[in-house]
């Protein structure tokens, strides 16, 4: 039985650092953002549906017009919902297939998704792990990483689910504030989930 970890957190929280640690510790991680881009690039049904929604110029010579998609997404609040209704079900299906490939090989796998809760991916995982960092730390990280202005980063933070809501819905919180050691927290998480996995497997026998 494979226990599925859902790894989430807002912009600048440092989810990718935790993902790297999990991979180093032998836990496969499904990067939903990367895989969504792959699906958009290769899934003909998704491409056709997105073109019908956004416009026929969305793909030029087979390549995604990222600036057009971005302009559409931020054009109106409900535009992102329309795109997500097309892409997210495919990501869920892909994650299920990906997870099944580890049956009998791994006891733990993870999905990294910034909008795991908002996208309804919680139903696909067994435990939700939130990566937390104070707002000012998140802002500084995102500004340095993306070259964005403070105003742009703050606007993105406000567009995402609040940390308070994420914390309420999470089963485990990892603090990534640049001061609290990460490895002991990740090891504690793996230990807890491994014990839970053993209990669930025993209960099914």
Automatic annotation (TrEMBL):
It catalyses: 3'-dephospho-CoA + ATP = ADP + CoA + H(+). GO terms for molecular function: ATP binding; dephospho-CoA kinase activity. PANTHER family: BIFUNCTIONAL COENZYME A SYNTHASE-RELATED, DEPHOSPHO-COA KINASE-RELATED. It is an enzyme of class 2 (transferase). Transmembrane segments: none annotated. It is found in: Cytoplasm. Its main location: cytoplasm. Its EC number is 2.7.1.24. GO terms for biological process: coenzyme A biosynthetic process. GO terms for cellular component: cytoplasm. Pfam families: CoaE (PF01121). HAMAP family: Dephospho_CoA_kinase (MF_00376). Pathway: Cofactor biosynthesis; coenzyme A biosynthesis; CoA from (R)-pantothenate: step 5/5. Keywords: ATP-binding, Coenzyme A biosynthesis, Cytoplasm, Kinase, Nucleotide-binding, Transferase. Catalyzes the phosphorylation of the 3'-hydroxyl group of dephosphocoenzyme A to form coenzyme A. InterPro entries: Depp_CoAkinase (IPR001977), P-loop_NTPase (IPR027417). This is Dephospho-CoA kinase. The keyword Cytoplasm applies. Gene3D superfamilies: P-loop containing nucleotide triphosphate hydrolases. Belongs to the CoaE family. ATP binds at residues 12-17. SUPFAM superfamilies: P-loop containing nucleoside triphosphate hydrolases. It comes from Bacteroides pyogenes. The gene is coaE.
């Amino acid at each position: 039985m494979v226990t599925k970890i859902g790894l989430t957190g807002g912009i600048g929280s440092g989810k990718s650092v935790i993902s790297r640690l999990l991979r180093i510790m032998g836990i496969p991680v499904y990067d939903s953002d990367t895989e969504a881009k792959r699906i958009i690039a290769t899934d003909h049904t998704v491409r056709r549906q997105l073109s019908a929604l956004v416009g026929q110029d969305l793909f030029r010579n087979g390549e995604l017009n990222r600036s057009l998609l971005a302009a559409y997404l931020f054009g109106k609040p409900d535009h992102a919902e329309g795109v997500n209704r097309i892409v997210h079900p495919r990501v869920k299906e892909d994650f299920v297939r990906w997870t099944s490939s580890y049956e009998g090989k791994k006891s733990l796998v993870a999905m990294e998704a910034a909008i795991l809760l908002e996208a309804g991916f919680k139903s696909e995982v067994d435990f939700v792990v939130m990566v937390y960092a104070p707002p000012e730390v998140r802002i500084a990280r995102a500004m340095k990483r993306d070259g964005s202005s403070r105003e742009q980063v703050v606007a993105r933070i406000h567009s995402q689910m609040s940390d308070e809501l994420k914390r309420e819905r999470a089963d485990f919180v990892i603090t990534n504030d640049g001061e609290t050691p990460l490895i002991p927290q990740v090891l504690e998480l793996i230990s807890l989930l491994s014990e839970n996995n053993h209990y669930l497997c025993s209960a099914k026998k």
